[in-house]
């Protein structure tokens, strides 16, 4: 497939956009990356391609848009099925991976956001405790899913690695800005090692944002969110 037949509407700091890019890299699919400047205005192509949520990422395959990062990852796995598998082939393992991915999006990552947005020490401590509790659960899930192998997906990066790993840059930024350690040898040794392996994987390293650069962006986002909402 020619590069121009696959496009990703995205933005470099977006954890969700990273999911689509990692999945395409795993399948060795070339694509055109169209950078959206969400804080300025959304492109006509984005508004047309994702009229319901108006969010990135959007994968455009030929002339067909696919929205929502985890749906995009599953689509990529199904369309380029001759490449390495992303979702587990076993139905129970697949259901388990989807369960944890939903937990990450609906519960765990919102707590990370709350650390940055917290007004007051009590709110901050509550959010940190929620993130830490979640990491203990995820440490156990890693043991169960990986069965002693390097990734949630086994020998190579799979669906849950992508779903969780895309949050690592923001986790590191949160650690840096808040002066706390969320992944540690004492509490989450397996996840600590997994995080290093994930970030240095060939499919990931070029799309994982630099912590310093993302921290600067994060400070700007927090300031804007406390002031005004981004343009629709
Ligand atoms: N559930 C969506 C979330 C996507 C999302 O929140 N994208 C953000 C960028 S990280 C966005 O487009 N924000 C613009 C807006 O909220 O208007 C997914 O997984 O794709």
UniProtKB/TrEMBL annotation:
Occurrences of domain GST N-terminal (ranges):
4-84
Query: Which cellular component appears as one GO term in the record?
Result: cytosol
Taking every annotated instance into account, which residue ranges of this chain make up the domain GST C-terminal?
90-217
Q: Which GO terms describe its biological process?
A: glutathione metabolic process; toxin catabolic process
Indicate the principal place this protein occupies in or around the cell.
cytoplasm
Any one Pfam family here would be GST_C_2
The catalysed reaction is:
RX + glutathione = an S-substituted glutathione + a halide anion + H(+)
PROSITE patterns referenced in this protein's UniProt entry, alphabetically = GST_CTER (PS50405), GST_NTER (PS50404)
User: What are the record keywords, sorted?
Assistant: Cytoplasm, Detoxification, Transferase
- Designated name of the protein: Glutathione S-transferase
Lineage, top ranks? Eukaryota, Viridiplantae, Streptophyta, Embryophyta, Tracheophyta
